[in-house]
Amino acid sequence: MKLTDYRGANLFDELVDAQGAIRPYYRGVADKLAGLGPEELGHKLRSLELLFLKQGITFTVYGDEQGTERVFPFDPFPRVIPHHEWETIEAGLVQRITALNLFLYDVYHEQRIIKDGVVPPEVVFGASHYRPEFVGVSVPKDAYIHVCGTDLIRDRDGRYLVLEDNGRCPSGVSYVLENRAAMKRVFPHLFGASGVRPVDTYPSDLLATLRHVAPRENPNPNVVLLTPGVHNSAYFEHSFLARQMSIEIVEGRDLIALDGFVYMRTTRGLRQVDVIYRRIDDDFLDPQVFRKDSCLGVPGLVDAVRRGNVALANAIGTGVADDKVTYAYVPDMIRYYLCQEPILDQVPTYLAWRPDDFRYILENLPKLVVKAANESGGYGMLIGPTATAAEIEEFRRRVTATPRNYIAQPVVNFSQHPTLVDGGLEGRHVDLRPFVLWGDTVKVLPGGLTRVALKRGSLVVNSSQGGGSKDTWVLAA
Amino acid sequence: MKLRILHRTEYRYALPVRNNVNELRVTPLNNPRQKLGLHLVRVLPAVRMHRYPDLYRNPVHRFEIEEPHKDLVIDVSSIVETLPTPVAGVPTDVPLAALKDPEIVESFQPYLQSDGPVQITPEIWRAAVDVEQERQDVFSTVLGLMDYVHATSKYVPGATHIGTTTPEFFADRQGVCQDYAHLLLALARAIALPARYVCGYVYDAKRGDVIGSHASHAWCELWVPATGGWGSTRPISGWFTRLTWPRPWAGTTATPPRSAGPTGAPATARCA
Question: Which of A281, A309, A337 is the endpoint of a domain?
């Protein structure tokens, strides 16, 4: 592999600085990669691909006609984050999840932040994932978001910005663990003395987080993972995590709710369930309360949650916190609940339901990124500068019809990272999704999932839209 | 030395309490001796946190819980880097007379008086004067007072409580770091040496841990004129993370329980 041909661009490059020099914390890994001959590299790339295929590390693309399961593309050039940068990111993420959990507690209890005029009522009550049914319901340890995946990007100056919080069922952590395992197998020589912080305690940390909210005084609570089933795009991850934590993976039909308790059907009869790590959206949890046509959920589950006999992670109703309109108010939440200034910055956001912002958005559609407030996975999104006139008109119509449901942000030309393309290195945009666990203590998995937009110039990193991933190295010192 | 500190205080009330108001002095100082990184106070039940500086510029966290609750957990996470401070040698040549400067006497009044449990009785003054005797310089006098406290007191956990005053300790001479620090304050102040109470964490390199009764420690700082600052009395060798400079009585515990509820006394308190 040749590093000498690699050039940065007119944006922040993770590997090289503005003068084209390799950043000091990349030197070790870059030198070792550069030492690989084309033949050896080709051999290693084929081993990697085979490894991922054999392990079944796949995902599903909805709305794709040709075969739904795909191998998640992987790029072997690891992303490196130096210790001091990570310390700031970690502090910022801990601060953010603390504020979000306090916000959720508040909007489902006294709603002081609304009464004090910090967050307008329409932001909370107008959020499609707000669950008024849960006002006044207590959840164990006042914890709503137990697992948070917060997406970060870096702007032109290398500043980390929060792009969004995923406080419902963030996925991707299995790729973090599998990417690391694959890298260790295929590129062991890259690691020597590099001081990369390990990621393999995540499953046991996750299990501890889940056990922490068990409602009964039980030294050995029964924790299960509830999946929508094998057709879900993240089924690989569900089975992977359940296996890693040595807990049962269940579908809705494996559970039954009786008299306000939830039980698991086993070959030895019913067994009470204490904590459900659910990877199903609120809407499908319980047909008696939410969507009547859901076959994925468990009738009576919500009743058991309300009575405090079973805990859900994440709790019901966390979607109001990762609504993209709510996002605009997170810095105010941090000031309100914690009396601190936000450590991590975020992307300026225009809210279509504010009259001034609405006019600005409609006048500047070709320059902006427009997002639906409650969509994820890169669906329902307009990237103004690359959109066709017809797409822009379509969004003009949608924003005008339901302004509450849309936000707009300036296009952030976020950082790029060298990526192997046809045997050479080319810069591709990357983001970062670290995972935060809110249990007895708050833990941040060192690193997280670095996603790469594999198409040249593309700013969309979602796996459903042609994105790949990289191993992410946080250095110990 | 960079320390990552989790200071957990748990209260288990015998009966549910309500309108529980707490003020915490738990924020490590940010100054040329130490740099504060991450600092977050997390409380269960969920509370909104207020912050303000007190009279001594200690950052204070304040929160209230109106709803009845039986458990209260306060987690304080901090990352503190202690910075090397240049020591220009022992200031042996500062005369005691320098402390008679009216400007010093005036600006250090709060650090020269009886305050809360620190009470300067005639007996304590007598003991201080006996140590001072013919000594002429501040530093050797301070050393003399420290030696006196160490030589005449015995470290006995449980012999005293949070509210024990210096005369009580002076009579018994059995207690913990807080009592030692209070007595040293009273002795120093009795002979007009400005002295203040410090609480914080001490890192023990041998154990690889932060030590002290309940992991936090108390000691004193004395003002030595002409050296331009407060000098620590070193209770034990180690890395010091200075938390606050509270007035003695306010700093006896970092998280004073102030509950308006019935039988609101904490049954157990644990620090991790």
Answer: A309
**Which chain B positions have a beta carbon within 8 Å of A338's beta carbon?**
40, 49
Q: Report, as ranges of residue numbers, the positions in chain B whose pLDDT lies below 70.
A: 85-91, 204-216, 226-229, 231-272
Q: What is the pTM of this model?
A: 0.88
Query: For domain B2-82, which CATH number applies: 3.30.1380, 2.60.40, 1.10.10, 1.25.40?
Result: 2.60.40
- C-alpha pair distances (Å), B6 with each of A333, B74, B75, B195: 24, 10, 7, 29
How confident is the model at residue B263, as a pLDDT? Answer: 28
Residue whose pair of structure tokens reads 């609304």 in the numeric block:
A114
Which tokens in the block code for residue B46? 């969920």
| Cα separation values, A349 from A151, A172, A353, A371, A410, Å | 15, 26, 12, 10, 8
CA of B48 to nearest chain A CA: how many angstroms apart? 5
Q: What is the pLDDT of residue A60?
A: 64
What are the C-alpha distances in Å from B96 to residues A421, B93, B135, B188?
A: 76, 9, 8, 12
Q: Which of A309, A334, A366 is the last residue of a domain?
A: A309
Note the CATH number of domain B96-244: 3.10.620.30
Domain boundaries, chain B: 2-82, 96-244
Which one of A91, A142, A442 has the shortest CB-CB distance to B46?
A: A142
| A16 touching B (Cβ < 8 Å) | no
The answer, for A95 touching chain B at a CB cutoff of 8 Å, is yes
Torsion angle in degrees (nearest 10) through CA of A34, A35, A39, A43: -80
Q: How many domains does chain A have?
A: 2
How far is the alpha carbon of B47 from chain A, nearest alpha carbon, in Å? Answer: 7
pLDDT digits (tens, 9 = 90+) for B146-165: 889 888 988 888 888 888 89
- pLDDT (tens digit per residue) in A59-117: 666 655 555 566 778 999 999 999 999 999 999 999 999 999 999 999 999 999 999 99
Please state, in angstroms and rounded to a whole number, the distance separating the CA atoms of residues A183 and A224. 30
